[in-house]
Fold each of these.
Amino acid sequence: MLNIALFGPPGSGKGTQSKKIIEKYNLAYISTGDMLRAEIAEGSDLGKRVKSVMDAGELVSDELVVQILEKKIKNLVGANGILFDGFPRNLVQAYILTGLLAKLNTELTAMISLEVPEEELMQRMLKRAELEGRSDDKPETIKNRFRQYESKTRPVSGFYREMNKCYPVNGVGTVEEIFQRVCGVIDGLK
Ligand code: AP5
Ligand code: MG
């Protein structure tokens, strides 16, 4: 299996690149952010519990993230592998991922990290706020998402670097240019 975690700060292009990657490499897609937003849209109990946390730009508890992941991971038979977007987001989740993949008799192949400077991230998300109105794309919330990323999420890249599984990719340029860089990394893994 080809199991990839697409990593990077808020607005770095994880969702945008994911769509192209899963199509080209026939991977199942797990985006914890999309799954949480779907729970909110449905008005489920879990959705009600996470809404205020996400609107504040904080991380949802590991326990709730695992709950939605386990729902999804059971239906993954048949794909070439799995692309994770926005997970793992802290060191505890990195260990949880190891366990989840071990249950499927597999492991993470690579973590691909999209590198984009903060000023550009802010511009991208403020533009998206105008177009789509995602409720966590407000300047103060975005700043908190950056803080959460720096303190809790960034250390995850060190965890995979030590395992020689971390591949930084320049995330500035056109969507297609970045996709070509990502494909260069993935094709080099095989
Ligand atoms: P999540 O949904 O994962 O959001 P995020 O990490 O903050 O990142 P975004 O989705 O905003 O950005 P992206 O990197 O996907 O970029 P995109 O392609 O959209 O998480 C949201 C919240 O859910 C968290 O804050 C937390 O509360 C909770 N959560 C989720 N997972 C969790 C977990 N595992 N544990 C705990 N809590 C969790 O691009 C951004 C914009 O830029 C778009 O408008 C796009 O069109 C544009 N764009 C893309 N590429 C380019 C380019 N090359 N040039 C110019 N513009 C571009
Ligand atoms: Mg996203």
Amino acid sequence: MSPESVAELVKAARAASEYAYAPYSHFRVGAAVRDEHGRVHIGCNVENASYGLTICAERNAVAAMVAAGGTRIVEMALYTPTEKPVTPCGACRQVIAEFGRGATIVLACAGGEPVFSKTEELLPLAFVLD
Ligand code: THU
């Protein structure tokens, strides 16, 4: 991932986190994915009074990519306004694996330097059908 790409994706993820609908947890998350066409798609977490219906930022960003015609996550950024970077939940890792084999995932936060990971590092031996 080039420094410019990292900066652009993290900026987009941070902007998305500001629109998070998180009245229950007050935990804001933003995500941005770059697809195979170089386009950026964003998502934030959207909670619900029926807590289990909450959708994470990562899955909303992937859904936005698919709805816009993207088929592959090349790079992805996650942003939380925390002191340390946060990693995607298990459900999101499975969804990232569906579209993002080999993708680089940058985990960014308010407090420090971003951490870089890979889909296969976040979810080794993922269940995928070829
Ligand atoms: N959340 C995400 O958006 N992504 C994750 O990977 C972990 C959790 C959201 C869901 C919920 O709105 C809040 O963070 C607290 O769990």
